């Protein structure tokens, strides 16, 4: 067994080597600042008091609190955090500080293997409130990006493309997503992953459809899958369409939910619609860059229009923990300009398209367009307003019934 290394966001921390890397590139950091970061990460299960930090990191409780405050500011600056955002280090008034970013732990040997191999190696186990465990693994894409992926359940495979933000360890334990895991793993094996740019994967600068296809290729290869059904939800829909068109030998069946062929700007029909879409994008980008809570809450309401405001707040918190404000803004911009309409007509596998009639985020007309473009497709409309289906709406069991029946047509022993 080697010493432990830690992965959070786009960072790798190796205390034994005295090294902090961002996207696999070493960062210069002063020894005292490095020691402070290491201590917070290693004791992330609790709030650490200022006195404890002064005694253990500085070796004296007589160092001024101002020195500690300055050092904490330097740590936050190094890892792209601020006292206002507190995405990595949380200040607990009157008590101290806690490292709160989702962190995976590996031995030095397994971490090194993950960097050298194209196949995945296990680096962390996530335990859910129900007692189930998923092993989070990492694989490398053809261009070297590290992508986190995991398998849930047992049986025939179902691969879910990455969609608008995720963080696999958080997603698995959040009540608002529990029904997705329970429903999608009924007698089958769900393969999921965090796309590059957010979650536990590399927070790299690549935000193109081509790179997202590379991510999916790497995960399918790492999972040992030659041919499989593919599920695309929301922004994962156009990626799933493009992948099915480009890799027809790999995709046996395609399921699209709340999906679209063209993003908001790409589907503008005239100058007025384009200006409106462009203004909406600029407001959204401004809200993301500023980390404005009111705007992000409004943004969350578009995904859960038929749900109480508490769910909007939960989703807002989840988004903030999954991605940096800069990367979130870049994803939004790229997604608004996506256009896979020229690829959709090349999809040759059977396709199920399911969409809520009153989806405010992606209009139902986009589902109709996909159905027209994909030859062997069937369209099912659900009564509801949520962009992301919730467990307490009638549309959810209907979606699962349609999904199960569709996939059972190719799965032996089911149906």
UniProtKB/TrEMBL annotation:
**Which BP terms from GO are recorded?**
phosphorelay signal transduction system; regulation of DNA-templated transcription
Residue numbers of the DNA-binding region are 3-101
Q: What is this protein called?
A: Transcriptional regulator
SMART domains in the cross-refs: Trans_reg_C (SM00862)
UniProt KW Nucleotide-binding keyword = no
A GO molecular function for this record? DNA binding
Under InterPro entries, the record lists: AB_hydrolase (IPR050471), AB_hydrolase_1 (IPR000073), AB_hydrolase_fold (IPR029058), OmpR/PhoB-type_DNA-bd (IPR001867), Sig_transdc_resp-reg_C-effctor (IPR016032), WH-like_DNA-bd_sf (IPR036388)
Listed A to Z, the keywords are:
DNA-binding
Taxonomy, superkingdom: Bacteria
Signal peptide limits: none
One Pfam family name is: Trans_reg_C
Residues covered by the OmpR/PhoB-type domain: 3-101
Supply the PANTHER family for this chain: BIFUNCTIONAL LIPASE_ADENYLATE CYCLASE LIPJ, HYDROLASE, ALPHA/BETA FOLD FAMILY PROTEIN
Q: Does the keyword Hydrolase apply?
A: no
* Organism of this sequence: Acrocarpospora pleiomorpha
């Amino acid at each position: 067994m080697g010493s432990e290394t830690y992965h959070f966001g786009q960072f790798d921390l190796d205390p034994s080597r005295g090294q902090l890397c961002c996207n696999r590139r070493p960062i210069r950091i002063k020894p005292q600042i490095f020691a402070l970061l290491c201590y917070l990460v290693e004791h992330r299960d609790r709030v650490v008091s200022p006195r404890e930090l002064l005694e253990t990191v500085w070796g004296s409780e007589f160092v001024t609190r101002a020195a500690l405050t300055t050092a904490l500011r330097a740590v936050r600056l190094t890892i792209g955090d601020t006292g206002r955002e507190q995405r990595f280090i949380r200040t607990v008034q009157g008590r101290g500080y806690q490292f709160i970013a989702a962190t995976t732990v590996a031995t030095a040997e397994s971490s090194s293997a993950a960097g050298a191999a194209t196949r995945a190696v296990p680096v962390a186990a996530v335990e859910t409130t129900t007692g189930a465990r998923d092993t989070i693994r990492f694989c490398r894409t053809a261009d070297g990006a590290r992508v986190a992926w995991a398998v849930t359940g047992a049986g025939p495979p179902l691969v879910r493309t990455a969609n608008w933000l995720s963080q696999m360890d958080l997603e698995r334990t959040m009540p608002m997503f529990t029904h997705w895991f329970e429903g999608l793993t009924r007698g089958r094996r769900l393969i999921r992953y965090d796309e590059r740019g957010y979650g536990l994967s590399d927070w790299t600068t690549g935000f193109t459809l081509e790179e997202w296809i590379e991510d999916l290729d790497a995960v399918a290869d790492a999972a040992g899958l030659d041919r499989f059904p593919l599920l695309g939800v929301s922004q994962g829909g156009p990626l799933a369409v493009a992948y099915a068109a480009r890799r027809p030998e790999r995709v046996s069946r395609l399921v699209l939910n709340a999906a679209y062929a063209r993003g908001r700007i790409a589907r503008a029909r005239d100058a007025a619609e384009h200006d409106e879409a462009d203004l909406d994008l600029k407001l959204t980008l401004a809200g993301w860059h500023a980390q404005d809570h009111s705007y992000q809450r409004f943004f969350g309401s578009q995904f859960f229009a038929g749900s109480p405001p508490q769910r909007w707040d939960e989703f807002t918190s989840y988004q903030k923990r999954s991605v940096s404000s800069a990367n979130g803004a870049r994803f939004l911009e790229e997604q608004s300009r996506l256009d896979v309409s020229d690829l959709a007509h090349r999809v040759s596998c059977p396709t199920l398209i399911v969409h809520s009639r009153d989806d405010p985020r992606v209009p139902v007309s986009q589902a109709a367009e996909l159905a027209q473009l994909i030859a062997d497709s069937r369209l099912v409309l659900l009564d509801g307003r949520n962009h992301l289906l919730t467990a307490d709406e009638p549309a959810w069991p209907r979606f699962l019934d349609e999904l199960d029946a569709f996939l059972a047509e190719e799965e032996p022993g089911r149906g």
